[in-house]
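Changelog note: in this version the structure field was regenerated for every chain. One regenerated record is shown below for reference.
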Amino acid sequence: MHFLGSCVERTMRSDRVAIIGGGIGGLAAAAALATHGLDVSLYEALPHLGGKIRRLPPQTTSDAQAATQLPEIDTGPTVFTMRWVFEELFAEAGTSLASHLDLTPLDVLARHGWRTSATLDLFADAARSEEAIGQFAGAAEARGFRRFCERAARVYGHLDETFMRQPEPRFDKLAFNLAFRPTALWDISPYTTLWSALGAFFSDPRLLQLFGRYATYCGSSPFSAPATLMLVAHVEQCGVWRIAGGMSALAHAVAALAREKGARIATSAPVAEILCDRDGVTGLKLASGEVVEADAVICNGDIAGLASGGLGTEAQRLVRPGARDERSLSALTWVLTARTGGFPLSRHNVFFSDDYRSEFDDIFGRRALPRAPTIYLCAETRDGHADDSMEADDRLLCLVNAPADGDRQTISDEDIAQCRKTVERRLEAQGLDLEVTSAWSLTGSPQIFDRMFPATGGALYGPATHGWSASFARAGSRTRLPGLYLAGGSVHPGPGVPMAALSGRMAAAQLMADLTLRKRFHPTATRGGTSTR
């Protein structure tokens, strides 16, 4: 079947848009389109909205506890940055983000621990972070941090308008836009790994670990990811916020905005196929057999779902063959409640392994659980202040990285239990006392995530960002199939809640721009014998 390369040559019958997937990218697209008066329907396969954003209660450990309702805990993304993405979305709808969400800026961005009992906080105030690093590792490392922050800010400045907010990740356009900035390519260092680039700023191996961890925000290894990812440091310094009610409150707020503007949203409504004819998209077929007519479709599912043929053969051929083989990290996640002591928890806490390189060798090389994992612990009841204290039980999310092979091999219950014991021993060795008041409840694994997001193997960030060209290999908003657009963390501009939302907004903008062009070039007869809009 042949499709025309230009979307302008197809005439839409109406302004009906169907969206596949109720992750944050799909919800943002629905809100943006509904705000502009389009007829929007969104279909989510899972029983909840938000995609990887979700809340679950831990399991009970006794009959007495079973009689009480244990609190739900965020078991997906927990870090909220780049709030301007959502402020713009709500402002375009004539309202404000602050009127829908209770947001509190964090003082402590993250607390970091090592087996030596050394701890280091990064603060929203970069000057305080510099002072803390000086006390932690010496004046030379503090000066290196200052230079690192300056470089990260320049990288962000180079890429914000010229790359991240562009609907297509094209290197030729980026190179042209940066040609008039003499130091730009040197600053972004696309051909240098993040780990290598960090060596120009830090010599302390603990600081290399800390800032190398930014690669994992894209589900990648710092030893293979490009130095460009140092921009994450600047993003965090622009602000990290706590959302009352957790990240799920964000998904609910965007969904409520979309509904207020007229969008229809259905959960437990999986899509079986994207329908099309020789001119392009015609609608969707749901797993129930219902056919939904539409003039345009935004697919907010993982790109691997298209690559596997899960939404039809015509959509499958739009994805390059290797897209399923370059997977990002998966994870094991647990939620629990506990009384804590010893190590003073903040909201976001990272406990580093002794051998950082071996962790990624295990995951990306051996395709196995890391023998010495880095542990992320989110204490969502903490306010992120330097003097955080708790009298009640902490509500905790614990995460360790894992290979995204949930459709290729099974991590046994014994291996998962052993990994959890390793985590408990490591936390104890690093000074954290846990008196668990609920069960350690497994909420995520490569197999669990693969069932939730088919054909991904449990990859949580789409394709891995390894090598200089990885970011440019991601699919953009448009496809070669007229009327089909893409959004979500597996496509440009990349993974993470704000980036996925930005992709949804860009897909909506591209769709509306194409719709305007199609109407402009659709002739209408008028008295007087001329053709006009």
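Spot check on this record: The CA atoms of residues 106 and 335 lie 22 Å apart. The first helix runs from residue 24 to 35.
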